[in-house]
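Notes from the 1:1 (GR / supervisor)

We went over the backlog. Supervisor wanted to see one worked example end to end before approving the batch request, so GR pasted a single chain during the call. The sequence is below; no edits were made to it. Supervisor asked that the structure be written out right there so they could see what the output format looks like.
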Amino acid sequence: MNLEKNSLRIRNAEARDAAQLARWWNDGSVMAHAGFPLGLGITAEEITESLKTDRDDGRRRLILEWQGKPIGEMSYTMLEGPIAEIGVKICEAVYQERGLGRRALSMLIRELYGRGCKKIILDTNLNNLRAQHVYEKLGFRKTGVRRDSWTDQLGRKQSAVDYELTPSDFIDFS
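Structure output shown during the call:
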């Protein structure tokens, strides 16, 4: 994938991105909302190996760039249906709260629908109100809340909100 619009680019993650991904994924402040307040403890070498399994019709990790600088990551996994499960993380705090995540999600969603996807799903931490606001602005519909459904690295129970989006409900901000 290689999508670009108005200085915002989404491209496939490659081996050359492994060191950057390791920095983000090992940073507890970046990964806390995903249940890893201590980071993942993963090496760039492990990420390089993992990226070798990415494919367009399965799981694909993506790099989000703003004006040529990596600022975050996205991913999608194609499920039966055809349904895509997606994720996004603006990892560089200075680029959060600027509407870049909403625009990037719009670009990715439009591309996945163009590839024949019929529904997009995602989940987020119940405490991540900022993400929920973005998803709902894009037209995602809340389908459920899974209370105390998982435990983070510090042993704290966490809850998740499930969302889905169909093409007719999609509000495109790209």
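Supervisor's comment: The beta strands are 2-5, 8-12, 59-66, 69-79, 83-90, 119-125, 141-151, 157-165.
Batch request approved.
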